[in-house]
Write a structure and sequence with these properties.
The protein is built from eleven helices and 14 strands. It is globular. The chain is an alpha+beta fold.
Length: 331
């Protein structure tokens, strides 16, 4: 395990829209209730991504963008293009001009026959983001991040295109797994971009000593770690390790450990079946009172108050889009 593994543990594909056109522009797709984290890619052709009250972003052929905003997303052949197809939170696809339903299908058709590899191809995906441990990842990402798919990332995108263009059984399951991989690879490329913000500990993974200690800490966060034990994992002296860890990660080793334990605890407290004492033991505390004090110091609320807030959030309507496959509206 490492920090990125843990940050992504609660992120899974929650539907993709594969929208192509065999006709000349104009084309436009509007996702009215996107997920907290969405991916938009242009394997073929080019398009413009527009968020409400934001400047349009050009998506050239082979670019992938990550969007973390629960605002309507429009992707079209030109900036500010009016939506020709809308997808709502109930997976209902309509032509907004007259409200007629638009049936999405997973393949491109011309005269009733499957025609792969023609026209612009837009790939979007929504991801479930339902855990506290994902927050460091989202905090590090801008509203919209755009990368150019080269090397392994481009090859993976081509696998997605090939599957979208196929009619083989198991298409949805295959594409969903590709989309999970596509997210991870896109994040790797983005976080390696010069000047990009990264989650705590991400760049430290490249350091032989501190990276090894971080992996050990994430593998077994409940272990009664001391700085000396983490330094031993790193193969460094206690003083040198503590200094280098703080420099690379941005916090002291035990401070980082406490923060991560409270993140894991915040997730565990969402389950009504577990007690606060059992959660305390899960994250390395034998004393529930000491755990509660640490949780309130780090999170700003008591464990019981956090649980109540989590339950009220769970009762709120979901903003995640549902699965959708298909071609964009005809010109």
């Amino acid at each position: 395990m490492d920090p990125l593994d843990d940050y992504l543990a609660g992120v899974r594909t929650h539907g993709g829209a594969f929208c192509g056109t065999l006709s000349e522009p104009p084309w436009s797709l509007r996702i009215t209730t996107p997920a907290p984290l969405s991916l938009v890619a242009m394997p073929r052709g080019r398009g413009w991504l527009t968020l409400q009250n934001e400047e349009p972003v050009l998506l050239e052929e082979g670019t992938i963008s990550l969007v973390q905003a629960q605002l309507p997303i429009t992707v079209s052949d030109r900036p500010g293009g009016a939506a020709l197809v809308e997808i709502d939170e109930d997976n209902q696809c309509t032509l907004p001009q007259d409200g007629r339903p638009w049936q999405l299908t997973p393949t491109l058709l011309r005269d009733g026959e499957h025609v792969p590899g023609h026209g612009d191809l837009l790939v979007t995906a929504s991801y479930r983001v339902g855990t506290e441990r994902t927050r460091p990842l989202l905090r590090a990402l801008p509203l919209v991040s755009v990368v150019h798919a080269d090397g392994p990332l481009r090859a993976l995108l081509e696998f997605v295109v090939a599957e979208v263009d196929s009619t083989l059984p198991g298409q949805r399951a295959t594409i969903d797994r590709y989309l999970d991989l596509l997210l991870v690879q896109t994040l790797r490329v983005w976080f390696d971009t010069p000047g990009a913000d990264t989650p705590a500990g991400y760049r430290a993974l490249a350091d032989p000593g501190v990276g090894q200690a971080l992996r050990a800490l994430h593998k077994d966060p409940a272990r009664p770690w001391a700085v000396a034990a983490l330094a031993a994992e790193a193969g460094m002296s206690r003083t040198a390790f503590a200094r280098r860890f703080t420099t690379l990660v941005g916090s002291a080793p035990l401070g980082y450990l406490t923060e991560w334990r409270m993140t894991l605890a915040a997730d565990a407290l969402r389950s009504p079946e577990v007690t606060i004492a059992s959660v305390a033991r899960q994250v390395g505390y034998n004393d529930a009172f000491a755990f509660s004090a640490a949780f309130k110091r780090v999170r700003g609320v008591s464990p019981s108050a956090h649980r109540a807030l989590a339950r009220s959030d769970a009762d709120a309507p979901s903003a995640l889009t549902e699965d959708a496959y298909g071609p964009a509206a005809p010109a």
